[in-house]
Specification:
The structure is a homodimer.
Chain A (H helix, E strand, L loop, with lengths): L19 H6 L8 H14 L4 E4 L4 E7 L7 E7 L7 E5 L2 E10 L4 E3 L5 H12 L3 E8 L4 E6 H10 L6 E3 H7 L1 E3 L9 H9 L5
Chain lengths: 202, 202
């Protein structure tokens, strides 16, 4: 049987996701998923007291729970639910931060099917409350990670039905910001937040 | 077999939790849990575009998932995990709000065992980032709901090991704020937030 992560995603081993030759070239990518990299980054921010950002737990609809005597309750039947919000949120310098993170294997565009109506609606609501809403997009083949403000994502998303079903990479380069990839933290998105949203403050 | 809520809590029916005579006196309490009342309140705030506050999903450690053909993935074995943060967070007027909500059947004090170290640590971290952190405490017998700033909770919590294991109700009355109970929204805590944290702004 295939080994699976707690989130249900199949475990593929460190080398299966990238060929050895590719890994030699892209030093920064150690075969970790975007989620793992962001969890590591957020943990770094937390320890350094720079920000308090957490990934929300995967929403699950629990149907049946067993309560064996003398041991922990066991969930015997449950289903994955669609999230009504984005995955990450928290506080940085008094401001509310809210984002979703997605990756693609495409090279020249980012498919909009990675986002769903609820999440777009949520980002609009956050913007109304003057929260900082954005997405982190990774092109996994080249290990390029961009921060794109929610306002731009929403614009592309709302055009989706009438026109193309993805965002051109050239548009992400134009409207978004390349995040520098490092070792610790891996994806230092607060550096971009500082320069884009707080440029007048520091 | 007992019917259970999605969160695993046993369903007791609307009348089991309060006697009929009591319900006649406390009109405001319709036998709903604090969580249900807050979800209704947050939904109200969302619809009125007043704030975007959500309860985080219950964290679950998923061990085994079945993928039947032509139907949704079924989680066959999972366990409840202890949350590393508080249950509720979101954005209001540009500010980050973060809170935990608990109720007690005690009449004169609130047991501190309702909170655990991780949550207290999280509240401290939020305060460092200038987030607004607090707890909502309900005395369910009298249906009195208080908002208490995290700074006071932390003070009482840190005294716990050396002295008493609960907060006196008189201290909650002294340091906290009574939240007006209504129909729609049920627990209008933003009214208190406005008067306590934003009194100089409006």
């Amino acid at each position: 049987m295939a080994i699976r992560y707690p989130n249900g995603r199949q475990f593929k081993g460190p080398s299966a996701s990238k060929k050895a030759s590719q890994r030699e070239i892209t030093y920064s990518n150690r075969g970790m998923t975007l989620e793992e990299d962001l969890n590591e980054t957020n943990q770094f921010y937390l320890e350094k007291k720079r920000a308090v950002i957490h990934k929300k737990p995967t929403p699950v609809q629990i149907v049946q729970v067993d309560y064996p005597k003398r041991s922990a309750a066991v969930i015997k039947e449950a289903y994955f639910k669609q999230a009504s919000t984005t995955d990450y949120n928290g506080v940085y310098r008094g401001h509310y931060l809210d984002f979703e993170a997605k990756e693609t294997k495409n090279k020249t565009s980012f498919p909009l099917q990675n986002f769903h109506d609820h999440q777009i609606e949520h980002m609009k609501q956050v913007m109304i409350q003057n929260g900082i809403a954005f997405v982190i997009l990774r092109f996994s083949i080249t290990d390029e990670v961009y921060l794109l403000d929610a306002s731009h994502l929403i614009q592309f998303y709302d055009q989706k039905k009438s026109s193309r079903k993805s965002i051109r990479k050239s548009d992400i380069e134009k409207y978004g910001y390349l995040i520098k990839i490092g070792y610790h933290p891996r994806i230092d998105y607060l550096q971009v937040i500082d320069s884009v949203y707080f440029k007048d403050e520091s």
